[in-house]
Each structure stands twice: as structure tokens, then as C-alpha cells.
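Give me C-alpha cells for this 152-residue protein.
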Amino acid sequence: MIRIKAHWLVFAFALTTAAHADGLPLTDGRYDGPSLILKLTQQQKRVIDHFRTCHLENFKTMNQYTPYIFKLTPNQEMRLRAKVGFSPSSFAVYETYRGDNDAGPHWNLALRFSEDQIEIPLDIVVSNGKANEEHAMQGWKNNNPCFPAFRR
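Here you go.
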């Protein structure tokens, strides 16, 4: 009997671990690891709002285009460089305060956990070269119809 219970405990742990590994570990919309918290500018808020609205209006055709359109300010880039040694050119935004809690597994994420703040999970920040490899593996195009001037 004890042997059977131990077997089920190992099985339950494996299931829990696998489910956790499928996505980014979030608790109440916040990252469970080291992150950098940044205040959003009004322009960044407009970019996020435009992306959300445009993406929702065109959701049937948007999955082939890169969601990595969010850019940091020079000061924000400097703060990220101080933490990880570099700053990627663009990020994907998940608005966790609006319920977008299926963030991942990905790279270079900005989690908008409040109206005015984002957090960048530090252990999934990758270089532009690595990000380009990941974009190619996903099959995303290097542009986004919601932002015609954007190029990765």
C-alpha cells in the first residue's frame, strides 16, 4: 500500500512539473523568477493599446506575424543592460493585469502587470541573434501589419 501511494505521489509531482514547464511560471499575473520592473511611458502605453486592438480586430490572420513589437526607452535599455549585459531590440507584451496569463514559453517578454508598469523576466531575455532564430523556428514573418514601419 505504501509503495502504491509513493508511486502516485511521484506521478502527481511529474504531472505538476510538466504543466508548470509548458508555460511561463506566473502567480497572479507576476513572474515567479528574477525580473526588472519598469514604468511605462505614455507612448509605450499607446503602442500596447494599438497592438491589442489591432490584433483583436484581425485575430484570424495575425498569428503569422511577429508579436515582438514593443521597444524600450534608452533609459530602460540601460537598466536592462546593467542586469543582463545586453538589451534586445524588441519584446512581446502580455497584459497579465487584463488576464493574459498564458505567456510562454517564449523569450524577451514584457509582462504588463498594471496600467503603468511592466516586468521583464530576466532569465528568458535573449540576444537579437537568438531571438531571430526563435522567430524563424516559429515561422513568424519579420513584420507586423499593425505596425507597418516595424522591422525586426
